[in-house]
Amino acid sequence: MARKLLLDKAHVPGITTYDVYRREGGYRSVEKALKSMSPDQVTEEVKKSGLRGRGGAGFPTGMKWGFLAKPEGVPRYLVVNADESEPGTFKDRYLMEFIPHLLIEGMITASYALGSNRSYIYIRGEYVWIAEILENAIEEAKANGWLGKNIFGSGFDCDIYVHRGAGAYICGEETALLESLEGKRGNPRIKPPFPAVKGLWGCPTVVNNVETVAAVVPIINEGAEEYAKIGIGKSTGTKLISACGNINKPGVYEIDMTISVEEFIYSDEYCGGLPTGKKLKACIPGGSSVPILPANLLLKTAKGETRMMTYESLADGGFASGSMMGSGGFIVLDDSQCVVRHTYSLARFYRHESCGQCSPCREGTGWMEKILWNIETGKGKLSDIDLLWDIQRKIEGNTICPLGDAAAWPVAAAIRHFRDEFEWHVLHPQEAQTRNYGLMHYADPIHVPNSVMA
Amino acid sequence: MSSETKNSVSTVKLTIDNISVEVPAGTTVLNAARQIGGDVTPPAMCYYSKLEGSGGKCRTCLVEVAAGSAADPRPMPKLVASCRTTVMEGMVVKNITSDKVKDARAGVVEFLLLNHPLDCPVCDQAGECHLQDLGYEHGKEGTRYEFERRTFEKEDIGPYIQLHMTRCILCYRCTYVADQLTDNRVHGVLDRGDHAEISTYISKAIDNNYSGNMIDVCPVGALTDKTFRFKNRVWFTKPMYAHRDCPDCCGKVTLWQRGEEVLRVTARKDEWGEVCSHEGKPGWICNTCRFDKKAASDWVLEGPADVSRHSVISQGHYTGLQKPKETLPEVMGGRAPKLMMDIHDVSEVNKIELSQLPGAATGNDFNSPAAKEA
Amino acid sequence: MSLRFSDNKLKEVQQIIARYPEGRQKSALLPVLHLAQQEFGGWLSPETMDYVAGLLQLQPIEVYEVATFYSMYKLKPVGKHLLEVCQTGPCMLNGSEAIVDYIYERLGIRPGETTADGLFTLKTVECLGACGYAPMLQQGKHYREHLTREKIDQLIASCSGQPASAHH
To answer: Which of C71, C28, C68 is nearest to A162 (CA)?
Structure first.
């Protein structure tokens, strides 16, 4: 049984209430930090833990905190990114809904480290009931002296507020989130300046994902060294994976980044395999933006090694034969699914969510959606596949924010690994309306040339 | 800070397409390239140096940074928007010497034209449209887009300005004008993604003495001057610098004339298509100068406007033209050539003496009874 | 009659504004628009938006710009019960299209349409972060997850104020 640091108490009855949470050892990290550590020591501890941002990019959290500018007399802000909207991702929702005080506790400790006296949770607007759960938890924490002025005589003031978004995936991008928090359209800002220098209302700001902030609690409680012992290489600690699609046990799992992808999909502790009679066709291991992999490349890397549920192993082979840990949204497709239709659905999503500020994303996402719809409905041409490739290539890297890349990668990866399925759609337009391409060779063992192994 | 350090502006040296340039610290790559000028300067559809916060959106000015600075000579991983990237000492920038840039720019041009109507012949902006120039200079012939283009109804925003959203490329410049030049912005960018649009939402007139500057900053034919629409093609008009003593604005303008008639008044534009600065201040003009002063007698004429030789407008720039010497009588020993056929005998159209008309010829001139009888 | 929040709601607006530093009341725009939509008929009319602009001392265009950007704000009247079915990838893998079809079978409305009695509006929306509980829809404040035909039947019956009939 893998070690759990975040969700180990999530199923204790009444853990959403302060009393139970406290009885189970809650708020110890705040006590420890405020009474025995300086803010810099807390930051140092997070650096040493090797914690990487859990929102998708995997940037080292301690380093991000270290970049925060600290000019005299200017407020600094911690903003928690709870705008969970990446298709396949629903882990933060689980954490906030079942163990809300963990987030509040992590926020107080992180706010202390960063010097934020006013911290915000930006939560996606549709999570109405979770915003209410968090507001209750904040009330309770405040009533018990963990928030407010001069917390336990430390001289540190902190308040936390919940801010609901209103339906826009783009607000998960940190500068769009800040714009939205300022009451504006969620148009990402042009960087530099980065939020660490000019963020919320022009002040230095750190934006961290929910799970990242929650992970500060075990890091401070157990110490960075203990935390860093869990996992492999630069993938330290535990990671929440939200698994969905065609599996027997969709849900949120905390893994310690030592297990293989195969174990994660098939073991009863996690996804519990695919429904009876179904075979694994493909998987998007880290939220809809990251490259989709056919079954064979998912379970083994191009070198023939077992693929593990770690940042490094999931990315092994680059985009040519690997993918990314991303946000941990693990989407499984069985052999009855159509990759073209699924890719179309994602393209529609990105077109819908593009803010429209910069031209490649605004125009390119809609174009890709239309072409994919033609291919899916039997009106495509073979040249459309190359055209799609060229469009995604011209969006990627050329936009203001990563939404352009996020829209380009799923299309690129689908064509890279499933080109035969796209061609089949074009060449068999009628048949493609009545049946799916199926598994074909996607699960066949990969031939590994000796030169690759060397 | 002592006054000495304040006055001594430190400069930064960098190269753009292998050309060295020295600019004050804090300058953007685009403005450094503008100091060199010519083809080395990236095109810019949304950036406007006189509008704070503009730029970064259209992505036409993307450049490759092959070395970030002398201190950290690593290349930047992605192409960057030169209008929003600050120069560094020892930076190595590649614009037209980078295949990556040329490829990305052609892509951006294609994206910008994707939903833009390709009907320049009937567009009022033709001849002074930055998208037209961009497409000509950096685009590919032909489009690969096979779907219906997004269209909108034309909308009057007040008595002087027409918005044709179909042509808009969402550069946001007009919203910056409204924010920075007028006290109450009533129009903005509504909706999002590929259906985002410039609108007032509830069809409100833009009623502000500086609103006309939105027309001057619009790079395409989305915002046009209703007092000029379809009166003439810009290349048939004669741009003249003129000024008047205006209590509201700088009063320095370009008159677009046909004969003596003033068809249009705009702010003066520099070689980048932006309004010129006068005494260090942007030369925005007020609506009175732009829309109401349409008589040559309202203005003190200064002389022909500077028009780039590459612009189609320079074709109609007939001031100072020297008529070639009539050589026929000379070679014919003093006799004039015999007229074989008078064109007016056979052509209805040419019964109108175009040069005698007070302004531009319109359909009415040809259809009027006078024309028929003539 | 001109639009106005009740005194209680006005107090709530003040509490929302107080979450942000002095002079940053524009930040209250998103939450106040949520409140206004809830109080004034489930959608944001120009009149409602102008009222909110006045409350927060903003230009009306600043409110329109924001209201038209976010998908949760409705700019046209909707039925009493708004059913928003998620259609993105993971939900699609689990049969969201069949749910949309079944709602059409039951209510005769396609996405974007409202029943003649004004009771239901059907919409398709993009990912609501419930991928593990697919297929799903959002109804007002609530997520209805792991949808089946039977659950749709029950939902329609409870909204119509009738017991679930054995429709199939």
So the answer is: C28
